[in-house]
């Protein structure tokens, strides 16, 4: 196995473990992946349309629609008709939504702390530098 293959294997294992842990935590509490992103966005920018949420989070409008229906059912968001375009609903986060957002934020901070607990500050900085370098490949620069 080449070093590149070994690196890819570990990156994939790390990604899978992180997703698995997040899914397990969220499923135990009746949360779904993506809810936190939507709630976080709405806590910073209320009154967004479904399309604006989809665009901002780079997810399909259908996925946003499904998530918003569940969030609304759980009283985490409300929808109000846009005064400028009656065909459009604007989405607002509720107090319960803000509370859940804070819980999710706290959980993420705790998971992140545990994930990197075995690394020194210097190792964390080096890992960040390397990941940034990987994520800024020549192909990415051409797309910009």
What can you tell me about this protein's structure?
It is a single chain. This protein is mainly alpha-helical and 144 residues long. It has a domain at 32-103: Arc Repressor Mutant, subunit A (Orthogonal Bundle), CATH 1.10.10.10. It has helices at residues 3-28, 35-44, 50-57, 61-73, 95-115, 121-135, 138-143; strands at 48-49, 77-81, 89-93. It has a three-stranded antiparallel sheet with strand order 1-3-2. Helix 3 (50-57) crosses helix 4 (61-73).
Overall body shape: elongated
From the N-terminal CA to the C-terminal CA, the straight-line distance is: 33 Å
CATH topology of the domain at 32-103: Arc Repressor Mutant, subunit A
What strand line-up does the widest sheet have? 1-3-2
- Mean pLDDT figure: 88
Protein topology:
Layout: H1 3-28, H2 35-44, E1 48-49, H3 50-57, H4 61-73, E2 77-81, E3 89-93, H5 95-115, H6 121-135, H7 138-143
Antiparallel strand pairs: 1-3, 2-3
In short:
With 144 residues, the chain is mainly alpha-helical. It has 7 helices and 3 strands; from the N terminus they run H-H-E-H-H-E-E-H-H-H. A hairpin with a 7-residue loop joins strand 2 and strand 3 (89-93).
List keywords for this structure.
three-stranded antiparallel beta sheet, elongated, mainly alpha, 7 helices, single chain, 144 residues, Arc Repressor Mutant, subunit A
